[in-house]
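Usage

Read records sequentially. Each one opens with the input sequence:
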Amino acid sequence: MENYKRIMDAEIEKIKAQKKRPRLLLHVCCAPCSSAVLEQLSAVFDLTLFFYNPNISPREEFDFRLQELHRLLPLMGLSEAEIVAPPYDNAEFEAVVKGMENLAEGGERCRKCFWLRLEKSVAFAKENAFDCVTTTLSVSPHKNAAWLNEIGLELGEKYGIKYLCSDFKKGEGYKRSCALSKEYNLYRQNYCGCVYSKQAAEKREERNFGQ
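and closes with the structure output:
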């Protein structure tokens, strides 16, 4: 299995040696997952955050996660970083996962969701002349980093833009995101975002409560 953290670290070392600051479009899912990733990447790249997450439900949850992201940037000294948030449209997500509603978390429904969000991100990066693109999603221990990088690389080739491989959970990245979330008092949701992950989280809580 590929070591995507090692691949990213090597790429970053090359960029540092060139003494350039490439423009990176960073697909972000929420403030907690973004925190440690922003800390790492802001030293190397000029960042624009792309909050495209039509999977999130309900709308109030989407709005609150976006609000927390806006609150995080000045706390991290990154007020100059722009956040781009396409209009919320949960129907985009529901259309691509139709027929997969009853699948378990972490399966093909999640892969389709990754593809949807990454394709929109990669296409936006290409259309707006970014140098490269990646996502914060791999910081979560519940996300399949191999899938994310395979999808990202395929889409990067399709659209003609560099996809920065990553596995942000490695090197204690997830642990650091938890520490920063506590430091900045960030809202940490207990489900990925979609109604199906919310239902799974509620079932877990019911089981734990009954123990």
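Summary fields computed downstream for this record:
- The two ends are 37 Å apart (CA to CA).
- The chain has a mean pLDDT of 95.
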